[in-house]
């Protein structure tokens, strides 16, 4: 009988496992609301409007939400340690690019990719932290802690970045984000075994079309919500075009999900009251953090 190799080395205590996962997840959580740590400084550095800074936060959330389902296929393909390393290094690379870029479009693309990275590290990390609890209870507690941490990120970001922004250019906080990933990578390398939690599942027939359609729709929805009021909603042609395109993408996405044998997003979840209330609560917490 084949010996089952544990995910972490035998000498690693549970408290160190949880600390390691927390250190791995925390930098990506900080990146979520990082532009809001000082909106005026961010806008001045990149030469953009304060609304553009707010939109970059929603683009991060769009990347996080749209990649949520597709991420599971990558987890089934990669070993756990390899999975963490790849997506953590991706966050380091995108933070490095954010440090050097001055263009809004490039910044928004990088922020979307960083949101995808948060999906990958946070989902698995929170599962590992609470894996000793019963499945139903552990899932509820892990997501309660996770979203509670998100709500606390804006004051936390302001606390840790205030002195940096006052002394340096705004982009130096992305350099700080790069170095904040290093402790997590070191701990992962020292404590984890390179094992799989699932049977390797090849990366074929990925539903990229649904991912792109859903992600684009969320970005357009964020654009309408951020810029709509200051541009008098449908009186502005760009807001009007965004509304039309978003409605078209949503329609295509819904039709596609009903037609697929294995849909990217099961529309039946909207029948559950807790799902709707949970989505509304988190959306309110996100919007409450925007000035």
TrEMBL record:
Signal peptide: none annotated. Keywords: Membrane, Transmembrane, Transmembrane helix. Gene3D superfamilies: Multidrug resistance protein D (1.20.1720.10). The chain crosses the membrane at residues 12-33, 53-71, 83-102, 108-129, 141-160, 172-191, 203-226, 238-255. It comes from the Bacteria. This is MFS transporter. It comes from Mucilaginibacter robiniae. The lineage of its organism: Bacteria, Pseudomonadati, Bacteroidota, Sphingobacteriia, Sphingobacteriales.
